[in-house]
Amino acid sequence: MPRSIHGGRHELGQNFLTHRPTLARITVLVARTSGRILELGCGDGVLTRELGALGRPLTAIDLDEHRVGRLRRALPDVRVEVADATRHPLDAEVVVGNIPFHVTTPILRRLLSHGRWNEAVLLTQWEVARKRAGVGGGTLMTAQSAPWFEFSLEGRVPAWGFSPRPSVDGGLLAITRRGSPLVPVSDRKRYDAFVRAMFTGRGGSLAAVVAAAARIPMGGARRAVAAAGAGEQRLPRDLRPEQWAALWHQVSRG
């Protein structure tokens, strides 16, 4: 196939999914949702064909104009476009994609701050999927997003399940927008700053970290931690989404 104007496989970060159980799992997860589907990075269309069989409006995008042309001819009922996943409008209810590993973080950040999509099913590096789902402890990005989104780890994909084979395994990550946010959207900028201060702050106890991050007296921080049911947690990474929200409600009122 001719080389894309955007570069070859290495520049585009193309590792095509060949693992049939994962293709089936993604299709099942998407089938449980409703509404229009946007596929990011459709490549040769292996997943696109499965999604198209669901009989729902489907837009598939890819940077490689040659693959897009071939897929348009093969799937005339699917809207296939040359587009950049880091810029294309997130204008469908469901976002699906085998995300190029080198742009995983910018795409995730964009998803969690743009668009009105309701469900996302993403294939990323294993460690990224694991961290976003909070396995082994939460991360800054996940904690900042948790009041508005729920994350779940839906499977591990062996490196040999891609062609060409990457150096790491993949992970299947599902993200759902909460119907009832734990924190008002109007608080998001201040909440983000509070969470960042918590993750970058120091202290001999969680209450000490809260006191420094929220700039409140130690007594108020201890009461906030107790009210949030977080007395047994030692580090910000140990907090559950509901505890983050409860902490924020306590310190923002103060």
UniProtKB/TrEMBL annotation:
Superkingdom, taxonomy of origin: Bacteria
GO molecular function (one): methyltransferase activity
Family: Belongs to the class I-like SAM-binding methyltransferase superfamily. rRNA adenine N(6)-methyltransferase family.
InterPro entries listed in its UniProt record: KsgA/Erm, rRNA_Ade_methylase_Trfase_N, SAM-dependent_MTases_sf
GO annotation, biological process: methylation
Family annotation (CDD domains): AdoMet_MTases
Organism: Microbacterium algeriense
Keywords assigned: Methyltransferase, RNA-binding, S-adenosyl-L-methionine, Transferase
Domain called Ribosomal RNA adenine methylase transferase N-terminal: residue spans: 22-179
Residues holding S-adenosyl-L-methionine: 15, 17, 41, 62, 84, 98
Protein name in UniProt: Methyltransferase domain-containing protein
